[in-house]
Design goal:
By secondary structure, this protein is mainly α. The protein contains nine helices and no strands.
Length: 199
């Protein structure tokens, strides 16, 4: 089967932003917990400051940026929060409940993504990093993996996505993302069997 390089179809600016995003995700992955926590909070605050009207209370964007991400950062060691960051409903969740909550609120708001394309941070769109697919490296999701490993008997949507995509890319199926999973590997003869998941 022929392979296509879809980067060739992108404009030079979009290609540069994509490459900057991939580099930043790998950099974030390599950070110790405390520094990953600080970076998560910084990314979230940048988005909220840039598009405050797109984060109304009750929206999935607000739940992601003002509840899930700050709570993950707190559990990774962040101690300084602004008013309105974190909430009792997430701070009282178990690790597995917080994983499920993150999976629910991890949705892209296309208008936020488009706006933030014009306000890049170090060459990349910070919102696109926070809503990146778990199977391609999402810092909130791999931060969650450090706090509460996926339950292999009852996979949440994030772990299931990483499991399926890592298998499709020819890797031993894994529940937690790492940078090597973004590359193609060779397929074993029996590659993998998808687990059951409750969505």
């Amino acid at each position: 089967m022929p392979k296509y390089d879809f980067k060739e179809l992108m404009s030079p600016r979009i290609r540069e932003m994509q490459e900057a995003r991939h580099s930043e995700i790998e950099r974030l992955y390599s950070l110790p917990d405390r520094w990953l926590a600080r970076e998560l909070v910084n990314l979230s605050r940048h988005v909220v400051r840039t598009v405050p009207t797109r984060c109304p209370p009750g929206s999935s964007t607000a739940a992601l940026l003002l509840e899930a991400v700050p709570e993950i950062a707190a559990r990774l060691g962040e101690t300084t929060f602004l008013q309105g960051e974190r909430s009792d409903r997430v701070s009282n969740m178990t690790g597995q409940e917080l994983r499920g909550f993150l999976a629910l609120v991890l949705k892209r708001d296309r208008s936020v993504c488009h706006i933030l394309d014009h306000f890049p941070l170090r060459g990349y769109n910070p919102y696109s990093i926070l809503v990146n697919d778990a199977s391609n490296g999402n810092p909130a999701a791999f931060g969650m993996d450090r706090i509460a490993l996926p339950d292999s008997e009852n996979l949440d949507r994030l772990a299931w996505e990483v499991y399926i995509v890592s298998g499709n890319r020819g890797h031993d199926c894994e529940f937690a993302w790492r940078p090597e999973l973004n590359t193609e590997a060779t397929f074993a003869d029996d590659w993998f069997i998808a687990p059951q998941i409750r969505i």
